[in-house]
Amino acid sequence: MTKKAKLDAVSAAAVDLAAEALVDVTESGQVGAHVRAEATGERLVTHVFESTIEGYAGWYWIVTLARAPRAKQPTVCETALVPGDDALLAPEWKPWAERLRPSDVGADDVLPYREFDERLEQGFEQTDAAEEDRAVQWELGLGRPRVLSREGREEAATRWHGSDFGPKPLSNRRRRGTVQAHCSSCGFLSLLSGSLRQEFGVCTNEWSPADGRVVSLQYGCGAHSETRSGDESTGEELPPAVLDDNEVDFVDRFEEKSIIDEKLLQKEIEKAAKADAAKADAAKAEDGKRDGAEADGAKADQADDSTRDDVANEDQA
């Protein structure tokens, strides 16, 4: 059993030294409070600080200090930014071959060549005459009262020949949508029995759109067992993954809730509307009173003018 390392008191107390070490590798405002100091070896202490970098929730800054025997001050070994238990991390990376599913592959997509495919084994391009005779003899009988007639085979062959998995033209230009190899040379083809085996077989490749279908020997797709040509390599070297630290993706981790009471807001709106209507009515009433007073004043002025005219006429008489 490995003995647990004892926490060095001198290095554990050097919190200021650890904080100063982070100044050289961080920007202002990226280091939070000191969390803890833990022993990682003999006279080896790691100080943990909170990280306040945007987009790095749950991450921590660490500074490892080491002290030589009988030394009074520790020295800085390394600094790093590490994720905690609740850190927001990217999903585990999976190779392209593990992410791909049969439903993602179309008839025009060419799959990479697999030199060691557990679904295939070495075969022979030709068989001897005895094997051909044995295949014909195996078709006869089988305990069935009736077997497919010549007309039935011809109808089936015509129907399959005109289906989506009938013959396709071969092309050497390697453009998308063209066929570079037919099913006749594919290891996933299982030939039919009898005379139909000369033209048709059943596809057994789950990555092919023709999986489980009767296909013409002149049909072809990108899931062919021999997709590699003579001048192609067995695989493609991918560049190393690049981590972009310059861009920050903001993620809403909490549901936003409105702090406004909608019912109270509606009541306030109605109350304000009523107040505005009352002010408008009062203004109309005030305008009516003002117009009435002006009319009465005009009548009084006319009466005074008439009185003065009468007095003037009497004086002249």
Short note summarizing the structure:
This protein is α+β, with helices and mostly antiparallel strands and 317 residues long.
Give the SSE map:
Blueprint: H1 9-13, H2 15-23, E1 31-41, E2 44-51, E3 59-66, E4 75-83, H3 96-99, H4 129-139, H5 150-161, E5 189-191, E6 200-203, E7 214-216, H6 262-316
Antiparallel strand pairs: 1-2, 2-3, 3-4, 5-6, 6-7
Task: Please give a structural write-up.
It comes from Helcobacillus massiliensis. Residues 153-173, 224-243, 275-317 are annotated as: Disordered. The longest helix is centred in the C-terminal third of the chain and has 55 residues, at 262-316. The strands form two sheets. Strands 1-2-3-4 form a four-stranded antiparallel beta sheet, with helices on one face. Strands 5-6-7 form a three-stranded antiparallel beta sheet. It starts with 8 loop residues before the first helix and ends with a helix. The protein is of the alpha+beta class and 317 residues long. The protein has six helices and seven strands, in the order ααββββαααβββα. The relative contact order is 0.08.
